[in-house]
Structure formats: structure tokens, C-alpha cells
Write a structure and sequence with these properties.
Layout: E1 3-8, H1 12-23, E2 28-34, H2 37-47, E3 51-54, H3 63-73, E4 78-83, H4 89-94, E5 99-102, H5 107-121, E6 129-130, E7 143-148, E8 151-156, E9 160-166, E10 169-174, E11 177-181, H6 185-191, E12 197-201, E13 204-207, E14 211-218, E15 221-226, E16 234-236, H7 237-242
Parallel strand pairs: 1-2, 1-3, 3-4, 4-5
Antiparallel strand pairs: 6-14, 7-8, 9-10, 9-13, 10-11, 12-13, 14-15, 15-16
Helix pairs in contact: 2-3
Length: 251
């Protein structure tokens, strides 16, 4: 399995350092480099990398803003900040950064981050697994009306696996297929309120009845193994606390 990387950094020497270090890891390939935020977004949409290294002080678009836009394109992209500005750490994790490296960082620290990403992507992360979420079918109605491609379509709610954002569209993963809509995640969250759906993460709504298990993903998040799909929605630490599967102590 090849892990693809894009580097969004205006310093060409730093791009070279990051590229050299990450490509020393077997199965990792840098497929694109960008010296400004606008070029980075264009390349991300064209190349669909799995990992993006982002500098905070990148021309054309603030690094945090860039990360927010990356997240809207694909919430599964691993975002790693590599920056000289330590004060943006909180904002970085607010947009679900996988890691935050402060320059000058040790090269081994960069290798460790990339190795951890590779382990997560390959499903080999050795971490503590927490029990599956409680499953309660109370209140789950049979169907709901969704606007799909300018048409209104009834979907069986118990067939919805999860809902997310991809390529600036809202995507409904269902046992009967994948459905795209222009409705926002927030509007669908309101529509499904009171039923067995949970906003696990800024980029995901999950059907709790489809959850199989939850495992540690990054510093502040988990990934959820779901029935009927290999895709794994994300769960933030705060939302994991709401579900009662973790305490305030990090594991």
C-alpha cells in the first residue's frame, strides 16, 4: 500500500527536507509540492493525497484556513502542521490536525509522525481499543426524505451507515449505495435529531446501530469501524466522552 503525500510549504529547502525524510519510509511517496495555499488546494483536488504537510505562514492562504478547506474536500486526509509558530497549536487541533511539528524539529520526530500515519492507514496501529458504542434502536423511524441531485428521495434510515463530506459535497453512505447531496451536515444533523444518529466529528454523522468498534486514531480522536463498509468515520475525544466510552484522562 502506497501512502501519498503533498507538501504545502513556501520554503523550498524545507520542502526538500520533508520530502527526503518521508520518502525514506517504505511505501511513502511525495506526489506534489506547493509554495502557496491556492496552489496547494488545486493540487489536493487534482491528486487526492492521503497526507498533507502544511505550514502556518504560507502565502495566499493562512495555514489554518487551508486546513479547513482541505477538511471540506476530504475529512480523511491526514493534516500535519510543520511550522515555526507554536502559538497556533490549539487552532490546528481545532481543525483536527493529526500532528503539529514546531520548527526546528528533529528529523526523527518527523519520521515518527509519518510512521504513525502509515500504521493508521494500513490498520496496524497498536493502541488501546475501547468497547463499541451502546446500540439503542429506540426512536429510529423507517424512512426520511432527502434531496439527492435535485430530486427528493426516501431513504431507509436503518440503512444509513454514516454521512460525511467529500469533494465539497455531503455524502450519505447507505447499504443500498452512496448518495450525494448539497445539504449541509448541520442541516442533516437537525433532520435526524432524536433518532439513532450522532455527530461524532465535525465531518461525520454516524448511525450508532452500525458501530462495531472504536480504536485510537490520533492524539485527540478515534476511528470507528462500521458495519457494511471498510471506511472508518472519525470520533473526537470530546464526543467520545459524551458517549461515555472514555474519561477525561487520555489513553
Amino acid at each position: 500500500m502506497s501512502i501519498t503525500v503533498l507538501i504545502a510549504e513556501d520554503d523550498s529547502d524545507m520542502r526538500l527536507v520533508i520530502k527526503k525524510v518521508v520518502e525514506e519510509i517504505e511505501g511513502v511517496e511525495v506526489i506534489g509540492e506547493a509554495g502557496d495555499g491556492l496552489a496547494a488546494i488545486k493540487l489536493i483536488e487534482e491528486l487526492a493525497p492521503q497526507v498533507v504537510f502544511v505550514d502556518i505562514d504560507i502565502p495566499g492562504k493562512n495555514g489554518v484556513e487551508l486546513a479547513q478547506e482541505i477538511f471540506d474536500i476530504n475529512p480523511w486526509i491526514f493534516i500535519v502542521f510543520a511550522t515555526a509558530f507554536s502559538e497556533y497549536r490549539s487552532e490546528a487541533f481545532d481543525v483536527y490536525a493529526f500532528d503539529y511539528l514546531v520548527k526546528p524539529f528533529k528529523l526523527n520526530r518527523l519520521r515518527q509522525t509519518m510512521e504513525r500515519i502509515k500504521a493508521v492507514a494500513e490498520g496496524k496501529l497498536a493502541g488501546k481499543q475501547v468497547p463499541g458504542l451502546s446500540q439503542n434502536t429506540v426512536g429510529l423511524k423507517k424512512t426520511c426524505l432527502f434531496k439527492i441531485n435535485n430530486e427528493f428521495v426516501y431513504l431507509e434510515l436503518d440503512g444509513i451507515i454514516f454521512i460525511t463530506k467529500e469533494a465539497r459535497k455531503t455524502i450519505i453512505y447507505h447499504k443500498e449505495g452512496v448518495f450525494k447531496t448539497n445539504e449541509s451536515l448541520s442541516s442533516l444533523e437537525k433532520q435526524l435529531q432524536g433518532y439513532q444518529f450522532f455527530r461524532s466529528h465535525k465531518g461525520f454523522i454516524v448511525n450508532l446501530n452500525m458501530v462495531k468498534k472504536v480504536t485510537r486514531y490520533s492524539r485527540d480522536s478515534f476511528e470507528i469501524a462500521m458495519s457494511h463498509t471498510d471506511k472508518k468515520p472519525l470520533l473526537t475525544w470530546e464526543n467520545a466522552k459524551k458517549l461515555g466510552i472514555v474519561t477525561n484522562s487520555k489513553i
